[in-house]
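Example A, followed by Example B.
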Amino acid sequence: MPPRTPRPTPQPGEAARLADQFQAAGFTKRDIARIIDRDPSLVSQFYTRGKGAAFIPALTHTLNAIHTAGITDLPELAAIAARHITRRTTATGTRARVRTKAVLITPTGTGTGRAGAQAIASGSARLRPLIAEAARQGLRLAFTVRMPKTGYTLASGSRTDSPGIRRDVLQRTDHTEERSYGSATTGGFDAADFAHRVDTAGGDVTAAIHQWLLETGRIHRDAHITHLEIRTWRPR
């Protein structure tokens, strides 16, 4: 059997050119991803896989708003972009399905959402609907944070850090630690409070959790969260 001929790598197109203009204006790939409400990995694929054609109108109108009106606020730019993003259609003309991971909160109020390194980079946007729905239902929440050990200000296992949490601190071989905050036993946190924090942070769940940890003296200002887990339940 003759060897397969490798497929040619798609060349960067118009979406990549527009992304370059965003970066020249001081925006990052993460900022561009937030503006079009997608993962930063997709923006990288503008360059490596020639993707992004569906976002050209949104990127073009948003750039115009930056250059002509001087708008730099990300939520405002995202609102402009949203008006020019249309869903893909199938061959029959119906809307194509978008592959998403469903956010599930059971009738008892139990729900769990996780964000890894890639999602963290885009503000853990997938966790925002879970927190918002938990707030709407009046639920409690807890969360687990993973970051380099040097990011924490309190010693591992300190009861000052996570009072009443029986779960041991989980130490990883990459010198990161997972620490849990809140539980059903201790009462956890008001989901509405954290939903408000997320809204104040422009929808950035990572930034909202980071700010809480900073305000409560648990981390250093330059600490970098690598993973997040949110858990919810209905108060008794």
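Example B, a separate protein, is given below in the same form.
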Amino acid sequence: MSENNASNPSFARWWRQVLFVPVLHSKWLTADAKARLTNRVTSAERGHRGEVFLIVENHLPIQEAYYIGCRERAIDLFSDYHVWDTEENTGVLVYVNICEHKLEIVADRGISAHVSPTVWRAMCEKAVSGIASKKTEESVGELLEEVGQVLRQYYQLEDNPSGNELSNTVVFLK
């Protein structure tokens, strides 16, 4: 997670997207892995009023990759998938970009009022380190659990409501 929301145009970033071969890098995201990660999202949402949303993307859209980086893409997806549109503004998007080996967390204003960007950044760095060690699913799962713990600190419930404002299903953008 970076503090700067503006990427510099990058020809190198664009080339990485063009040359990226998804089948070589996203083998870990099997149907079973998606189901397990969906369960981790569901688990991360227990005991609080927040919403956790996971998007895994192979690479940035080619037509945009020269101009935008992962942070801007995550912010766009935060909007596109209405993660911002929760009753108490407690939506948290976890965005994983396989090609760039990057992970971003975009938190809505309700939770951002309580949690420093440094906390989100540290969580991302820990997960990226695990991903670099070829433990992608485990690292993302642990990150989801940590996000749930942060949300529980500020939006804890005595009993977990049955309502769910956003889907828990992992979104995979090829």
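On Example B: Confidence is low (pLDDT under 50) at residues 1-5.
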